[in-house]
Amino acid sequence: MHLADIDYQALSKRSWLHDRRTDVKSISTLLVLIAVLAAQNLTILVVILCFLFVALVSSKLSTKAILHFSLYPLFFSSIFISVLWNTNPTLGLLSLLKALSSAWLMITLVATTAYVDLFATLSKVLPALLVDLFLFTYRSFFILLEKVSDLMKVIRLRGGYHPYHPIRNIKNFSSALALLFVRAFEMNDRMYQIYSLRGYTGKLPLREEAKPWTLSDFSLILISLILMIGAIL
Amino acid sequence: MSHIHIPDGILSWWIWVPALLLVVGILYFIFKSWNQEEARRLIPLAAMMSALMLITMSVPLFIVPVHLTLAVLAGLMVGPKMAFVSILVVNTMLASLGHGGVTLIGLNTLVIGAEMLVGVYVYRLVSKKLSTLPSAMIATVVGVSLSLFVSLGLMISTVGLVEALPHEEHDESDEEGIVLVIPERFNVTLEPIYHVEEIVIIDDRENFYKVKLTSDERHATVDEVVESLIEAGWLPSDNSDDHKGWYLKDNIEIHIHALHEDRVTVFLEFEILPEGVEHDHSHSDYEGKEYDEDLDSILSEFNYLGFSGWLAVIMIYLAGMLLESSATGLIFKSLKKVKKDQ
């Protein structure tokens, strides 16, 4: 799971894209996504892909990480490409580039924007409870990841893992996960009570960092708009 | 287990846009019908379930190419409405990491949501008669099976029925097989053979007949010929249990073998054996090349690499189903033991 890596990338690194306003990046992402979906020729997709590659590299994401993130879309699109290759190789290549572009696009957004800022932008259009669920899930993910890691160590230390007894392992891990759930639920109940005491009424107050509009923000939207119009036309 | 991994730009807009709109509609209905206080109280629990689903859905199981979803467990834990919202959250977060397309968020939510909903209702029905573990397992099996069928339907709508089916199946339904006509004196009638591109008669004598088949899928061709022979009453002519390449019926012997140099050629030899003469089963030469690979080696290779087509689909389905249902059942059973109020 790369959520932790992406979170670190979004919060700890600084780049031209990191400094852009979250709403600007969200709008640009939407425009480029439309471009990717609408593109019907290889040239425009190659241009989009080059643009995204530059964006990813300039956001200080390592080439190794980019390759790693590309594996999922490449693997899953390869199934369709193998089907399309014999009948229409151009369509196969088009599908591959679309899959890769779309994945790179989303990675660019989440790797340069803190999730909390993204949720704050989302809260303008989505129901408050849904945004809260996003936030709580995001927080729970890291709690759970840490607890799962500790739990695995405990199971091994106490002899709960036997390489040649898969059924016993499944039973032990299931019991351990259930226990983990119980603890996590209790922790979350406590968290809910704390939030309630502090006035939580179904909408977490999210404050977006107030960044002024700059020429770079307009440029980013303009480039995305050009790509979208180019793909549609 | 039934997460759809179709990248963006492959599915037509008329499939994913209505799905997304339907999800928005369902969300509207859920938010309208919710008791806000109860919903707020459930959010931490749902978040924990979402986080667990995020972890399980991003970790492929090492023995089969699937991953768990635990959607039914989510439904059992937090109720269908909150679980549906959780599933949407998980799919959105996964899509933002390149795991499945962004355009697939709606469809994936519907497919996994259907799995969860059916699972929950089946559990409620079955748990009246059975204990927690079997009830949860049955509910998961039913839910996952349904969502797999929905996923398969989507796959068919994308690439067509022929391509969506496992390879060995669609070839036979799509193409016409070639009928190999053997002279009557050899008393052999074979079923149509698929995958064969060319048939060349190499030798045609009174008591010996030999053909060369060129096949893009040699293993499948050999398998079809062997199947056809066994159905017609031919038996392997040596003592081994495996097919050794020689088949005997009355005094007629058939030898199937292949060239080692390439991966496309199969030879079929038909020979009428004289009374009282036992064939020595030695390999003969053809244009100076040694037939150093007989049917045994082809079939052993075929068996090793033959984990494909319907067999692979069924094996993966069973393995994935067993893992998903046992994980759901065992976790839910343990949870019920600890928290009696669940």
What is the strand and helix layout of this fold?
The complex is a heterodimer of chains A (233) and B (342).
Chain A lengths: L2 H10 L9 H17 L3 H17 L4 H23 L3 H24 L2 H8 L5 H30 L8 H32 L17 H18 L1
Helix pairs in contact in A: 1-5, 2-5, 2-9, 3-5, 4-5, 6-7, 7-8
Chain B lengths: L12 H21 L2 H22 L13 H8 L1 H16 L9 H22 L5 H28 L1 H4 L2 H8 L21 E9 L3 E8 L2 H14 L3 E2 L9 E4 L2 E7 L6 E8 L12 E2 L2 E2 L2 E2 H11 L3 H30 L4
Antiparallel strand pairs in B: 1-2, 2-6, 3-4, 4-5, 5-6, 5-9, 7-8
Describe the overall structure:
The longest helix of chain A has 32 residues, at 166-197. Chain A is globular, with a radius of gyration of 22 Å. Chain A has 9 helices and no strands. The two termini of chain A are 38 Å apart. Chain A is mainly α and 233 residues long. Chain A folds into 2 domains: 3-114 and 210-232, no CATH class; 128-197, no CATH class. Chain A has helices at 3-12, 22-38, 42-58, 63-85, 89-112, 115-122, 128-157, 166-197, 215-232. Chain B is of the alpha+beta class. Chain B folds into 2 domains: 13-165 and 311-338, Orthogonal Bundle (Arp2/3 complex 21 kDa subunit ARPC3); 170-305, no CATH class. Helix content of chain B is 54%, strand content 13%. Chain B has helices spanning 13-33, 36-57, 71-78, 80-95, 105-126, 132-159, 161-164, 167-174, 218-231, 295-305, 309-338; strands spanning 196-204, 208-215, 235-236, 246-249, 252-258, 265-272, 285-286, 289-290, 293-294. In chain B, strands 1, 2, 3, 4, 5, 6 and 9 form a 7-stranded antiparallel sheet that branches. A two-stranded antiparallel sheet of chain B has the order 7-8. In chain B, β1 and β2 (208-215) form a beta hairpin. In chain B, α2 (36-57) packs antiparallel against α3, α5 (105-126) runs antiparallel to α6 and α6 packs antiparallel against α11 (309-338). Chain B is elongated, with a radius of gyration of 28 Å. The interface between A and B is large, with 63 and 57 residues.
